[in-house]
Write a structure and sequence with these properties.
The complex is a heterodimer of chains A (357) and B (295). Chain A is mostly helical and 357 residues long. Chain A has 15 helices and no strands. The radius of gyration of chain A is 21 Å and the shape is globular. Chain B is 29% helix and 23% strand. In chain B, the strands form three sheets. In chain B, strands 6-7-8-3-9-10 form a six-stranded mixed sheet, with helices on both faces. A four-stranded antiparallel sheet of chain B has the order 2-1-4-5, covered by helices on one side. Chain B has a two-stranded antiparallel ribbon with strand order 11-12. The chains are: A mainly alpha (357), B alpha/beta (295). Chain B: This is ABC transporter ATP-binding protein.
Chain lengths: 357, 295
């Protein structure tokens, strides 16, 4: 707590109540919109009552029919919750990577992490390793493979980006990520060509699986979500210390490499879980942390918890757009995030020009 | 170590330039003759980076409260020496701080003993001055915890002392060079360390701001009892503020003593390959570069 009489301007960076309330509010709006909107539109008030009925001990009359209640609880709610978890993880991982690499352009996709997970999952799907898991239609080995692929890719990117030695710039790391992504994508294409019978299942996964989300997917992602969120959020202050560079961080009593490896592992685990559950959904990890940074402050003590909340809300709302913009057809959610993310990336590139050079 | 807020120990030495006797240079090392607890002891410090020897057997003692400045041509190993003392390089037991081998100190313990102002400190984009200075309290904040009221009180006290009151909410990147340098010092002071390492801290500043920073450091070492080990390129300013100077060349100490003993035309010509004129001054000699051949 700040000393008595300390004004707001002299308080250290931290999550202010109004921003926390805004984040929680965004999540609630996303849930309500996500569950209400669709081919069958439901009154938001009734949906809100039905959602309250999910709380223990609450039994209110929402006025919805049994069929409509099933739409809420069995079809739309798991899809919205999975969107919240995946969006939160991708945004949190993006924010963590940006801090760890001290690079405003770091993102699970630009670093090749998602491509690593994608190739690993493609290997599992085409070669049928561990097929037939009990929790999901996908093999149980998918999340594990995605994690190994994620860590392998981020390691390759880091080593390649570090090859420039002292002369390396933040842009070097991103270029390394692009190279690693291209290399891994080539491997993926080769595998698909050799196993043409798997193309449909792999591509349906690649384009995003929120459309087919069920509670089993939520149960699959939730433990990874909890572990990743806990580790990253508990270390958010260390990311502020790391922002002054390794030497200075070490002279401040931090073990920079230990913190870095731990955070990379946690962010990669989160990315792997998100990719295995929902396929490749780009740009969330760069759009959300940057918006938070622009609006609420540059400390990772602010960026990371708000990225988790706003990332979840962002993806859940994007999913609403994906399934209503061209109804009755659904646009793949990855297409929508890319349409939003492309221009945003250019904006970030312009504001980060000084850092990059 | 006590944080600045609690360290009100009087200046261990009388006001004005402390009396430091002549030094012995040779295999036995560089030792000030007057007594006083050693803050830094280097014994046969050897550092190799990428297989290249950078420091080739350094012996040096810095007493508590002293200001010792290391000079030398580019590539002499000055910054490496400071990095070794700051615990950023593996040095086995060649470095002792206040009598304790560096290797025996945990990272956070070490950060409470020695603070560094780097040559070109990183300025994190968007970070406010208060948050930047608060980073100096990292060694006192539990790894997964947050700052205490004491940490904040120390930060505000340091900001007040360095005439930075009202700067807390300002973005660090928007400050002038002189103001920024004061903030870098403030972070180091917030660490509560009594040994301050300055690695060419004013290389990016004009002469007025250089003076301002060094006057501030000198004042702080007198009021806080700080020990200062610095590297500098500006030899006149180095001689003006240092109690003792150490001339480093090719990883070895080639001269040590008072500024008047080290800043000689002969030594500077030999090790810097520079044509200079040395003029005696009230505190230390002034070193003026001269052209070898006038047209």
């Amino acid at each position: 707590m700040p000393p008595a009489g300390m004004d707001t301007a002299s308080r250290p960076a931290g999550l202010r109540k109004r921003w926390l309330a805004a984040g929680v509010g965004a999540v609630l709006v996303a849930v309500l919109a996500g569950v209400s909107l669709g081919p069958v539109s439901l009154p938001p008030g009734s949906v809100a009552v039905e959602l309250l009925n999910l709380l223990p001990g609450v039994r209110l009359d929402s006025g919805l029919s049994e069929r409509e209640i099933a739409i809420v609880t069995e079809l739309r709610l798991p899809r919205v919750v999975l969107g919240l978890l995946v969006g939160g993880l991708l945004a949190l991982a993006g924010g963590a990577y940006q801090g760890v690499f001290r690079n405003p352009l770091a993102d699970p996709y630009l670093l090749g992490v998602a491509a690593g997970a994608g190739l690993a999952v493609t290997v599992v799907l085409t070669l049928g390793v561990g097929a037939g898991g009990p929790l999901t239609g996908l093999p149980v080995t998918v999340p594990l493979a995605a994690f190994v692929g994620s860590l392998g890719a981020v390691t390759m990117t880091y080593l390649l980006g570090a090859a420039g030695g002292r002369s390396r710039s933040p842009a070097t790391l991103i270029l390394a990520g692009v190279a690693v992504s291209a290399f891994l994508a080539a491997g993926q294409t080769y595998l698909l060509q050799r196993h043409a019978e798997s193309i449909q299942s792999v591509y349906s996964w690649l384009l995003g699986r929120l459309a087919t989300a069920g509670w089993q997917d939520v149960r699959l992602v939730l433990p990874y979500f909890l572990v990743t969120s806990l580790v990253v959020l508990l270390h958010r202050r260390e990311l502020d210390v790391l922002s002054v560079g390794d030497d200075e961080a070490a002279s401040l009593g931090l073990h920079p490499q230990r913190s870095r490896y731990l955070l990379i592992a946690a962010a990669s685990l989160g990315t792997a879980a998100a990719v295995s559950a929902s396929g490749l959904i780009g740009f969330v990890g760069i759009i959300v942390p940057h918006l938070v940074r622009m609006l609420a402050g540059s400390s990772y003590r602010v960026i990371l918890p708000l990225s988790l909340l706003f990332g979840g809300a962002f993806l859940a709302l994007t999913d609403v757009v994906a399934r209503t913009a061209a109804a009755p057809q659904e646009i793949p959610i990855g297409v929508v995030t890319a349409l939003l993310g492309g221009p945003f990336f250019v904006l970030v590139l312009r504001t980060a020009r000084r850092v990059l050079t | 170590m006590t944080p600045p807020s609690q360290s009100s120990s009087p200046d261990p030495r009388p006001a004005g330039r402390p009396a430091v006797g002549p030094v012995a240079v040779g295999p036995a090392g560089v030792e000030p003759i007057d007594a006083g607890p050693p803050a830094v002891e280097l014994r046969d410090l050897r550092v190799r980076l990428d297989g290249v020897p950078i420091l080739a057997g350094i012996d040096l003692t810095v007493r508590a409260g002293e200001w010792v400045t290391v000079i030398g041509p580019n590539g002499a190993g000055k910054s490496t020496l400071l990095r070794a003392v700051g615990g950023l390089l593996s040095t086995s037991d060649a470095v002792r701080l206040f009598g304790t081998p560096l290797g025996a100190l945990r990272r956070r313990e070490r950060a409470r003993v020695v603070a560094t102002v780097a040559q070109s400190p990183v300025v994190p984009p968007g970070m406010a001055v208060l948050d930047y200075v608060l980073l100096g309290r990292n060694p006192y904040i539990p790894p997964l915890g947050r700052e205490s009221a004491t940490d904040l009180a120390v930060v505000h006290e340091v900001l007040d002392r360095l005439d930075l009151t009202g700067f807390g909410a300002r973005e660090l990147a928007t400050l002038s060079g002189g103001e920024r340098q004061r903030v870098f010092l403030a972070r180091a002071l917030a660490q509560g360390a009594t040994l301050l390492l300055l690695d060419e801290p004013t290389s990016a500043l004009d002469i007025g701001h250089q003076q301002e920073v060094f006057e501030l450091v000198d004042q702080l070492r007198r009021t806080e009892g700080l020990t200062v080990l610095a590297t500098m390129h500006d030899l006149s300013i180095a001689g003006e503020y240092a109690d003792r100077m150490v001339l480093l060349a090719e990883g070895r100490i080639v001269a040590a003593g008072t500024p008047a003993e080290v800043l000689t035309e002969e030594l500077l010509a030999r090790h810097y390959r520079a044509h200079v004129k040395v003029i005696p001054g009230p505190h230390g000699p002034f070193v003026l570069p001269t052209r070898p051949h006038h047209p």
